[in-house]
Design goal:
- By secondary structure, this protein is mostly helical.
- The chain has a domain of 67 residues.
- The protein has 3 helices and 2 strands.
- Strands 1-2 form a two-stranded antiparallel sheet.
- Helix 1 packs antiparallel against helix 2.
Length: 108
Amino acid sequence: MGFRIYKGVDQEMEFKGLKAQYLLFMGLVLGGSLLAFSVLYALGFPLIITMIVCVASVLYLNKWIAGMNKKMGKDGLMKKQVNQRLPTAIRIRNRGFVKSLSQKKAQV
């Protein structure tokens, strides 16, 4: 009896160089562009202007997302968001907390 070995099961998802959550962002950009094209065309904007706006926005956002992917990698965006939420300083307005810490340390 043998066991099947599934290679690459634990590896990150990647498509054309885009990794992890950047694939989702690119999908949202393309879906949003399609929606924007439909809305602009339905509102009566000329076809050429609608196409130029949508293509230009997709190209710009594609370059921006690829740059983030290259700069930060798979988990870099999540780490950046966590670092932005960290406090720069911890303020203690009541000295009783600090005194209780020193008293507990003396007891041990």
